[in-house]
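Shipment paperwork, digital attachment
Item: protein structure file
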Amino acid sequence: MSTTQRISIDDDVAVLTEQLRALRELGRRAQVDDEDIYDLSIRWGTALAGRLRRLVYYHDRGLLGEDAERRFAAVCEELRGVTELVERFGLARPQLPI
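Attachment content:
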């Protein structure tokens, strides 16, 4: 792949943003059952293993444009912001480069 070719991260950001939203929503609930946590943990783990890993791969190789880098940094910041919820529900911790 040429370094001048733009990498689209729209779908990756959308999936990660949706999982962040779902995690925050679960965290606001007064009562959460094990099934809800399990369902989220599967989607969360898939998003981190697939979408986040893809973004990190492109970031590490300098293949993201300026806008994509900003969006990636924003997603990383959001992921850092949910650390307490990740720990509370025993979810996989994101491996963030920045």
